[in-house]
Amino acid sequence: MKKTLLTLTAIAAIGFASSAFAETKLTIANWLPPTHPLFADVIVKMAENITEATGGEVTTSILPAPLGPPPAQFDIAANGVADITFGVQGYTAGRFKTFNLAELPFLGDSAEALSVAYWNTYDKMLKDAGEYDNVKVLAVFTHGPGAIFLKSGDVASTEVVKGQKLRVGGGFVHTVATTLGAVPVEGPSSKAYELLSQGVADGIMFPFESVNAFKLIPVLSEAITVPGGLYNTSFFIVMNKAKWESLTPKQQGEIDSVTGVALARIAGQMWDREDAKGREAMKDKIAVSPATDEQLAAWREALQPAVDAQIAEVSASGIDGKAARDLFMSELAAASK
Description:
With 337 residues, the chain is an alpha/beta fold. The chain has helices at residues 2-22, 37-53, 73-78, 111-124, 172-179, 192-197, 208-213, 241-246, 249-258, 261-281, 293-315, 321-335; strands at residues 24-28, 58-62, 84-88, 135-142, 147-150, 165-168, 183-186, 203-206, 222-225, 234-240, 287-290.
């Protein structure tokens, strides 16, 4: 009888251990509305893919309330407050340098191609700068090409934004606005409608997706598009390093198979879909004009010193900025085919 009890106890212990092993759970922080496509179509999809790839050995739990503002997200993962977070490098000025490559103007019109090229460049070269050494990077990617949206203005003028108060976010877009003569207006994306409707801002630099997502179409009338975009915004998805190292090599490999370039592609495809929806939503409501040859020539010339400075800043991270730019453009050409 005693032997039977010992056997049953051992079996129960093994079963408990197996159950505990099978229920490794990763907490995911979120600061966006649940309907935002970056959350709904990328973060939720990533969570599902991790569970599927690991055969249910690793599951996820998305936290119901934000743990901090967008600029705090990287540290939330690095410090283990949550296991996985996502955010924008440009929200923490001066902390990151290599992301500058992905935010330059005139790069490309497909967020998918840009994101795949960005990840590949990160994986082959940018990670050597050590900016992310205290986390596990699951993806880096960009949104679609940024355009100019205005309440009014001479859309064919090379000085169309001169003196205009434009709401901008962090990163290179602030430099673009300043260089072209605009007056940057700081403020979170969630306050964009308020800034525009109350006259604090005369326009905004955004991708088409964001104009639609933040319901700005009624307060804007003109848009100017630029081949390759006037800017892009770089994003990260990162995981706490200790949590990553607590997983088995098998689990790590399975998660790697659905993150990295695969996750960057999912994010890029989402932005492309949402940009297309944004363009469709503003038909007959916002007049969309492609930049003229004169505008393009003037803006390229004006922005070149800023582009050079961005590449120099990449070099300041400890890697060769020019070589990284060449690699990025090569990867972008391959991803665009």
